[in-house]
Design a protein that fits this description.
alpha/beta; 6-stranded mixed sheet; 16 strands
């Protein structure tokens, strides 16, 4: 089971924010289902207003139990005082909100296997910073933090897109931008997508984790099916092998097509193989040898070979890892 507490707070009185509720609602809609419509996270949404007691109790409840993944998403004000705070809408000088160190403690004491905390707020990287300054040097086992900004930085809202800058990229990643070839979106790939999308002049996201294996937060349509990936070790028996091609692999090389053709003519079986090899090429798994395109590799009796990424999936296929 996977569960997520999704919070977007706007109503901070004179310090009102504009789009945090939009952020939370959009994240909720994506996390509830995978790309094929199958169920993903069981979600609980808090938007607009939330007091200290309600947020703290909700976070404690989130990290109770033994779910496969328990995820906290927060969009709102953050404060840098002490160990950092996720500000609630009843904030005062005496209580700014829920301390980040308390939230981290709930996560670290949780029996949930994976605890993911995603923060779109100012000073977000204060989450977990006290650990590094104290007697411990690592996060608790199974904890991952993705922060929208450094511990001294503010986080930007963008009125033209009606979302926080960080969350707008997060949403693109969850829609598929951060997916690997098999359609899996993990915390690491999601962070990498956001990080690469921001330049040096913008807020810098932060990633902290202590986990041995990432589970997908969401899956979308794969670029190549597992069945097709398994064939890599069939076409290439050894990782350094080249797959020899000839004109019979090119479907346009047929007497039925009105252009110059050459023997051997297109063979149905070889054409089907060629389609898969071209699919591999399109996602960076295979490359033609000594030419720029698979078409010319076939028509000029050349070959194709695995790329560095292709070698990775070849090994997974050979080892029956999927």
């Amino acid at each position: 089971m996977k569960k997520a507490l999704i919070v977007g707070l706007n109503d901070y009185g004179e310090n009102r924010l504009d789009w945090c509720d939009n952020d939370a609602i959009a994240v909720k809609e994506l996390l509830e289902t995978n790309g094929d419509g199958s169920p993903d996270f069981d979600t609980r949404l808090i938007v607009g207003t939330c007091n200290y007691k309600a947020l703290k109790e909700s976070v404690e409840e989130l990290f109770s139990g033994d779910s496969e993944i328990a995820m906290l998403y927060f969009s709102g004000h953050g404060a840098h005082q002490d160990d950092g705070y996720l500000c609630t809408t009843d904030l005062s000088e005496n209580c700014l909100g829920v301390r980040m160190s308390d939230i981290l403690r709930f996560a670290e004491e949780s029996k949930c296997k994976n605890k993911v905390i995603i923060l779109d707020c100012c000073f977000a990287a204060k989450m977990g910073e006290a650990i590094l300054a104290g007697s411990r040097s690592i996060l608790g086992e199974g904890v991952t933090i993705i922060a929208a900004s450094q511990s001294w930085q503010t986080a930007e809202e963008q009125s033209e897109i009606e979302h926080g800058l960080f969350t707008s990229l997060l949403l693109q990643g969850l829609r598929g931008g951060a997916a690997d070839i098999r359609g899996n979106i993990t915390p690491a790939s999601l962070y990498a997508y956001v990080d690469q999308s921001l330049c040096a002049w913008q807020q810098r996201p932060v990633f902290k984790t202590n986990i041995s294996q990432f589970l997908p937060l969401r899956t979308v349509q794969s670029k190549v099916t597992d069945a097709q990936l398994r064939k890599l070790s069939v076409y290439f028996e050894n990782p350094t092998d080249e797959y020899s091609l000839d004109p019979s692999y090119e479907f346009t090389n047929s007497p039925d097509v009105d252009h110059a053709i050459k023997k051997p003519f297109a063979d149905e079986k070889n054409v089907e193989i060629m389609k898969e090899l071209q699919l591999y090429e399109s996602v960076g798994l295979v490359e033609p040898v000594d030419t720029d395109h698979m078409y010319f590799a076939a028509m000029e009796n050349k070959s194709c070979r695995l790329t560095a990424m292709g070698l990775h999936y070849w090994k997974l296929s050979k080892d029956k890892r999927f």
